[in-house]
């Protein structure tokens, strides 16, 4: 059974239809790269999955429950679906460690010791342990994003959503963050990654979903998507620009 | 040494010897008689004098709580002449003096008491010791007013709530009334050219002239009212002794000295210590009173500040609410309270609400008004600060599974609070300054205490300057505190 399933998803802002009927499913352990031109609806699609944006119509079910249904405990479902943002969105008023500890204690009701042990272990894995006591304003963009990934991963989510996680980073640190994401993928994390990093999509993803004009225009394994045999004209045009 | 100079000296020495022996011999005689006066003369008992020391220059209280004034001096002198050894002044509300005499709790009532027929049924009075009654005062350079008739068409200052208002309306309706809030403002209005004349009690006018000069009394007193000392009915012995002493003092000129000390022109220099602009002694003498006023002010400010923060937070949440009716409550609160003057709100709460059956003590009314008013500004500060926090913060918290309440509490509000600090500091400076306005509802805070001191010393310049300085220090303390707090909290910026 699919971990996440989307049916007939649309999203409009006034007269502007950003998402125009999306059907999509992701199986446990899969890594899906979502690519496509700017303004094509990639980020909106991702944000509709944990209801940061409310879909205009359609349904989203996750882990066997209907997110869009009435009376659903959205906070509980969101806690199993981590999200990493383009601009990190670390809490600036807390240290890196506290950023990772607070949601664990607040949402999962873990003890302080348990949460800190978990946080330190993960921070160590991403090379941020010695910066655990620093406030985000003392961290570089790459360091912030590593902490943000740890914050989401510490919740032991079943699915992680990445919304252009490297777009705001300096080129030289992009690879560090991508490496960490690759490791997560190797550990078996189910991931949905909106990205412009074609290398990552090619090497790490199991599927490439090409979103354009509010629709999924292609959904292929990377070997097929990036091959000469991909005859989707819009995908061709897009790839010519970014490669 | 010429012989004519020796005799006065010798006389003085002889008189001194005589005086030294006289009280002893009188006391001995009195003890044998065994009356009340005898006990007083022997020093066995103390003469209990009831007074309400809030009426300068007759009797008032200095900043250290000591009683002084014309009545205090005169009663001491009269008692001494009557051979009474110990005198104790008992502070009591004016209205309690006659009942206290009837109940034998005091022996003399000395508190600028008019000798009215109604009172004479309850107590006996000494002879007149000072003439009172209403009189007309004008600038000492003004020769156009000679009598009550001349006040027609003139601007006449009267103090609100005193009998001069009614009396003048009846006896000189052609006068144009200028109503002053305080005794001191009434006199000052003539000196400053805001009024042509003052109609008020003759002793108060004389006291002002003695203290400040610049005015003169014209014509005779308008009403015949006289002050006397009150005694228990049938206490003829004591009353007679006082009357005898009073006559002696009139005869030997010491009465005149006493009146000149409190009502005469000589007292001006003696009391104000020259004409320097800033009289530090005014502040030192009243330091106890000022301290009390400052404590009351601080109490008003701190409690109003707490209420303001509470209402501002609630109001801010209301304005941010997703539920429309709650948002409306927030909007109405801000638009009504911010859109009307504070003084109107204060008076509405203190004077208006009692008509709806809500009677609040002055302190409560003052604090509620001030907190309510300031809270409307804090509401907007709170709302603005919360809305200024990047939307990504809420999204990050919610996407972790944190509830709206948790996200607000741990993520949004702490960040918003830091942004609120500078405007909050400004608002609390405003609140501190507005706290002076609660003096209107008889709260004895710093400003009202200042006015009380001015009514005694007429030293408006010194007192307002000093009080202004205290407010300045308070507001700067608030600015300093918020700045320090901001620096301390801003480690992450």
Automatic annotation (TrEMBL), chain A:
Keywords: Amino-acid transport, ATP-binding, Cell membrane, Coiled coil, Membrane, Nucleotide-binding, Transport. CDD domains: ABC_HisP_GlnQ (cd03262). It is a peripheral membrane protein. It is found in: Cell membrane. Residues 4-238 form the ABC transporter domain. It comes from the Bacteria. It comes from Amycolatopsis albidoflavus. The keyword RNA-binding does not apply. Belongs to the ABC transporter superfamily. PANTHER family: AMINO ACID IMPORT ATP-BINDING PROTEIN, GLUTAMATE_ASPARTATE IMPORT ATP-BINDING PROTEIN GLTL. This is Amino acid ABC transporter ATP-binding protein. GO terms for molecular function: ATP binding. Residues 105-132 form a coiled coil.
From TrEMBL, chain B:
Its main location: membrane. It is found in: Cell membrane. Residues 1-29 form the signal peptide. Keywords: Amino-acid transport, Cell membrane, Membrane, Signal, Transmembrane, Transmembrane helix, Transport. The keyword Plastid does not apply. SUPFAM superfamilies: MetI-like (SSF161098), Periplasmic binding protein-like II (SSF53850). It is a multi-pass membrane protein. This is ABC transporter substrate-binding protein/permease.
């Amino acid at each position: 059974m699919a971990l996440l399933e989307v049916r007939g998803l649309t999203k409009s802002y006034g007269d502007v239809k950003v998402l125009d009927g999306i059907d999509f499913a992701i199986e446990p352990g899969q890594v899906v790269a979502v690519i496509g031109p700017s303004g094509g609806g990639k980020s909106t699609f991702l944000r509709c999955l944990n209801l940061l944006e409310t879909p205009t119509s359609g349904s989203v079910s996750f882990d066997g429950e209907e997110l869009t249904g009435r009376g659903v405990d959205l906070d509980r479902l969101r806690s199993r679906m981590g999200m990493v943002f383009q601009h990190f969105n670390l809490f600036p008023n807390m240290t890196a460690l506290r950023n990772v500890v607070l949601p664990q204690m607040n949402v999962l009701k873990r003890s302080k010791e348990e949460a800190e042990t978990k946080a330190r272990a993960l921070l160590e894995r991403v090379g941020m342990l010695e910066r655990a006591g620093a406030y985000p304003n003392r961290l570089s963009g790459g360091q912030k994003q590593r902490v943000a990934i740890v914050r989401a991963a510490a919740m032991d989510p079943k699915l992680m959503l990445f919304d252009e996680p490297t777009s705001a980073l300096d080129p030289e640190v992009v690879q560090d963050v991508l490496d960490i994401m690759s490791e997560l993928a190797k550990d078996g994390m189910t991931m949905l990654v909106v990205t412009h990093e074609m290398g990552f999509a090619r090497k790490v993803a199991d599927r490439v979903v090409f979103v354009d004009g509010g629709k999924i225009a292609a959904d292929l394994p990377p070997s097929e998507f990036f091959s000469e045999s991909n005859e989707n004209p819009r995908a061709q045009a897009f790839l010519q620009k970014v490669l | 040494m010429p012989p004519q100079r020796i005799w006065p000296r010798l006389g003085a020495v002889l008189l001194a010897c005589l005086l030294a022996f006289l009280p002893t011999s009188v006391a001995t005689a009195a003890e044998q008689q065994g009356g009340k006066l005898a006990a007083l003369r022997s020093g066995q008992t103390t003469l209990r004098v009831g007074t309400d020391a809030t009426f300068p220059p007759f009797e008032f209280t200095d900043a250290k709580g000591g009683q002084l004034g014309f009545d205090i001096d005169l009663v001491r002198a009269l008692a001494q002449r009557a051979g009474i050894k110990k005198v104790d002044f008992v502070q009591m509300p004016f209205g309690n003096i006659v009942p206290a005499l009837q109940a034998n709790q005091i022996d003399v009532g000395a508190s600028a008491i008019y000798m009215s027929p109604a009172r004479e049924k309850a107590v006996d009075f000494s002879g007149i010791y000072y003439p009172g009654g209403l009189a007309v005062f004008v600038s000492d350079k003004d020769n156009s007013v000679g009598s009550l008739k001349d006040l027609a068409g003139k601007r006449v200052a009267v103090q609100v709530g005193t009998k001069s208002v009614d009396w003048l309306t009846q006896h000189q309706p052609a006068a144009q009334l200028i109503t002053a809030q305080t005794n001191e403002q009434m006199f000052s209005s003539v000196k400053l050219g805001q009024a042509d004349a003052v109609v008020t009690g003759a002793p108060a006018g004389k006291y002002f002239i003695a203290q400040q000069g610049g005015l003169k009394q014209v014509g005779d007193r308008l009403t015949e009212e006289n002050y006397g000392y009150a005694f228990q009915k049938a206490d003829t012995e004591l009353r007679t002794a006082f009357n005898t002493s009073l006559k002696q003092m009139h005869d030997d000129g010491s009465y005149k000295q006493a009146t000149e000390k409190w009502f005469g022109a000589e007292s001006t220099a003696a009391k104000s210590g020259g004409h320097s602009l800033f009289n530090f002694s005014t502040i030192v003498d009243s330091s106890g009173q000022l301290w009390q006023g400052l404590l009351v002010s601080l109490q008003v400010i701190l409690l109003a500040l707490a209420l303001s923060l509470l209402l501002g937070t609630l109001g801010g949440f209301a304005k941010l609410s997703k539920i429309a009716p709650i948002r409306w409550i927030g909007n109405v609160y801000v638009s009504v309270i911010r859109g009307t003057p504070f003084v109107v709100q204060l008076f509405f709460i203190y004077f208006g609400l009692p008509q709806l059956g809500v009677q609040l003590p002055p302190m409560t009314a003052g604090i509620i008004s001030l907190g309510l008013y300031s809270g409307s500004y804090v509401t907007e500060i709170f709302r603005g600060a919360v809305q200024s926090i990047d939307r990504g913060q809420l999204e990050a918290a919610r996407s972790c599974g944190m509830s709206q309440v948790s996200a607000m509490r741990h993520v949004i509000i702490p960040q918003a609070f830091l942004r609120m600090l500078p405007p909050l500091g400004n608002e609390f400076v405003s609140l501190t300054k507005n706290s002076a306005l609660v003096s209107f509802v008889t709260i004895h805070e710093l400003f009202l205490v200042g006015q009380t001191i001015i009514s005694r010393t007429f030293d408006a310049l010194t007192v307002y300057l000093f009080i202004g300085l205290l407010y300045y220090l308070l507001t700067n303390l608030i600015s300093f505190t918020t700045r320090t707090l901001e620096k301390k909290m801003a480690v992450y910026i």
